[in-house]
Amino acid sequence: MLSKSLIEDVLTAALSTGGDFAEVFVEDRFTNNFTLQSGKIETCLTGRDFGIGIRVFMGLQSFYAYTTDHTREGLLKAANNAAQAISGNKLIQLAPLKHETIETIHPVQLLPHEVDKSRKAAVMLKAYDTAKSYHSSISQVTVRFMDEEQNVMIANSEGKWVEDKRLRSRLAIQAVAVRDNKMETGFYGPGAHQGFEFFENLNLEHYSNEAARIAVTMLDASPCPSGKFPVIIDNEFGGVIFHEACGHGLEATAVAKNNSIFAGRLGERVAPEIVTYIDDGTLTNEWGSINIDDEGEKARKNVLIENGILTGYLIDKFNSRRMGMESTGSGRRQSFRFAPTSRMTNTYIAPGKSTPEEIIANTEHGLYAKYMGGGQVNPASGDYNFAIMEAYEVKNGKLGKPLKGATLIGNGPKTLQLVDMVGNNLGHGAGMCGALSGSIPVNVGQPMIRVSEITVGGTKGE
């Protein structure tokens, strides 16, 4: 994407005032975003974004500049701008650049630009028709289609020089059900690190019907009572609680500054023995998976909590300096406009030995959260508040009536300690995670779990 000699000149300019590390990140991204409503394509946005980010370290200081000017003059200007923030006494020599071939561990069959838009529209129409015809109370269906191809090149003063092609595809289905002045919404948004073959192999009927079924089911839901109950959280996107309330606390961005409850606690018990918590960017074709991170480090499986013991953190290159620990291949960013920092990929609770049927049967009274909704988290403390999109009462070991207006209120690290059953049905859910280095694709996951007690906020007046 840039010649070797130009890369070397840019890195040299970035180090010209005494920096001890320099990096160039080049990105060329192609995106398609379509929206279908009322059976018609309402929006069709296709774009290209190209730019270069240049980063310089000196000790525990980091400076970043970016530009969309890829001429030699433009790149050297950006490099010098980053360098001007540093005033050091020692000039280092660049290590010889060695181009490394990256093995693609997420195979792709159909590149987005090779597929006609009519085939993409057909996927959306099928999802729309399926959801719309699920039940007469479905009044509106919105389908969003996204695919992108991101080509990156990363080079640094330590001799690293790698290139990578990332393909991602996602379909988001939202259904609205209306009856007797009541309105409820259901949503499902599967995605993968794949090309168009993802849509061809996707079980459209399942996801479309589920979005519609949630909306229709919740029309008949009773108000959720408030109190402290055992809570069963189902698999897939149920893992969003621990992603938000625990996962972010295991990122070096927080740990290195001692802004996490998990800081300085390696080797300590932070969860029951039945809980193992993993971040794994190597899972084949999963939405949050990577070949390399945005600092050029290979994807890997990082076990963060093993049998309840805190065993690791997610560490990027800059925070590895602060912590005196090696990078874990966790440096990620939204685009060239952001400097990378430690971020999750596919983060999940490993499967246990209990079946979902056993977990429900062993719960005398409580709440079953089938699908989670949105929420808020204080990353420093882990305090959270999450809505439940679809919930049911649990009574005498059986699922009861659907409940609406349910929220879960608690503290992530404390909730982690109260997990007393872990299912064997691991599933992953696709989402977007926003943080210091922008919004990035991640998977959250878990099998069904039971937490012995969570504060449940119910519908007002109940």
TrEMBL record:
One cellular-component annotation, GO: cytosol
Ranges of residues in domain Metalloprotease TldD/E C-terminal: 226-458
Protein name in the entry: Peptidase C69
Gene3D superfamilies xrefs: PmbA/TldD superfamily
Domain Metalloprotease TldD/E central: 112-219
InterPro entries documented for this protein: Metalloprtase-TldD/E_C (IPR045569), Metalloprtase-TldD/E_cen_dom (IPR045570), Metalloprtase-TldD/E_N (IPR002510), Peptidase_U62_metallo (IPR051463), TldD (IPR025502), TldD/PmbA_N (IPR035068), TldD/PmbA_sf (IPR036059)
Organism encoding this protein: Neobacillus mesonae
Keywords recorded for this protein, A-Z: Hydrolase, Metalloprotease, Protease
The family this protein is said to belong to: Belongs to the peptidase U62 family.
